[in-house]
Amino acid sequence: MAEAERIIGTPDIPDAAGAEAEIPDERPRGRRRIVVLFTVAALAYALDLVSKMIVVAKLEHHAPIEIIGDWLKFEAIRNAGAAFGMGEAFTVIFTVIAASVIVVIVRLARKLYSLPWAIALGLLLGGALGNLTDRIFRTPGVFKGAVVDFIAPKHFAVFNLADSAIVCGGILIVLLSFKGLDPDGTVHKD
Q1: Is residue 181 within 8 Å of 187, Cβ to Cβ?
Q2: Could you list the active site residues?
Q3: Nearest to 150, CA basis, from 54, 11, 37
Q4: Of the candidates 136, 137, 139, 130, which has an alpha carbon nearest to the alpha carbon of residue 159?
Q5: What residues pair up with 181 in beta bridges, in sequence order?
Q6: pTM of the predicted model, to two decimals?
Q7: Residue in 128, 108, 115 with CA at minimum distance from that of residue 45
Q8: Torsion-angle region of residue 112: left (phi > 0), alpha (psi -120 to 50) or beta?
Q9: In the chain, which ranges are continuous DSSP H helix?
Q10: Over the stretch 9-22, which tens digit does the pLDDT of each residue have?
Q11: Which of 55, 90, 84, 66 is nearest to 161 (CA)?
């Protein structure tokens, strides 16, 4: 075995007892990070879907529910635009952007060796899938659907759990970038 490792260029590494130890393969580590990414994405997506189903069934066409006085309410609205209802005429563009984000994350997953990046990208992926599902399947039609929003803080935009996952994932990515941690697990000091 040691002779075969010398031939292919893998150095021998002695362990504490003097025997040769095998070099750990990097691929399982990468696969574990991909599993984390897709697990976080699936959890964020499922929570968003279930919350929207409950909101549509129990809250839509009803009075808002006050959670903390008038500071925080659950109020069902349909949003064809982006945050604060801006860009309602660009629903198709938001759909294309969400689909593009999903494709980029899935492609980046092949090079993913960082647990924090896996969590951040999983949050982005789950959130993007949640809002993309609304844009594809909700009225008024395919690629023009309005997103179900229901978390309504006072003096702020009404949002949903997908939006929360996207924002949390984005904040984590900014923090990781400032710390110099790359998705492949390397750390750089700039």
Answers
A1: yes
A2: 149, 163
A3: 54
A4: 130
A5: 187
A6: 0.78
A7: 128
A8: beta
A9: 2-8, 26-58, 91-108, 115-137, 161-179
A10: 444 444 455 554 45
A11: 55
Strand partners, 153: 72
Please check whether residue 169 is in contact with residue 124, taking contact to mean a CB–CB distance below 8 angstroms.
Answer: yes
pLDDT tens column, 88-118:
666 778 778 888 999 999 998 888 999 999 9
Kindly provide the b/e burial profile for residues 129-161, where b requires at least 16 CB atoms within 10 angstroms of the residue's own CB.
Answer: bbbbbbbeebeeeeeebbbbbbbbeeeeebbbb
Residue whose C-alpha is closest to residue 122's, from 31, 32, 44: 44
Q: Using CA atoms, how far apart are residues 165 and 48, in angstroms rounded to an integer?
A: 9
Comparing C-alpha atoms, which of 157, 95, 159, 158 is closest to residue 128? 95
Q: Which amino acid is at 49?
A: L
**What token pair was written down for 1?**
């075995």
Query: Of 100, 145, 146, 144, whose CA–CA distance to 124 is shortest?
Result: 100
Buried b / exposed e across 100-121, counting CB within 10 Å, b at 16+?
Answer: ebbeebeeebeebbbebbbbbb
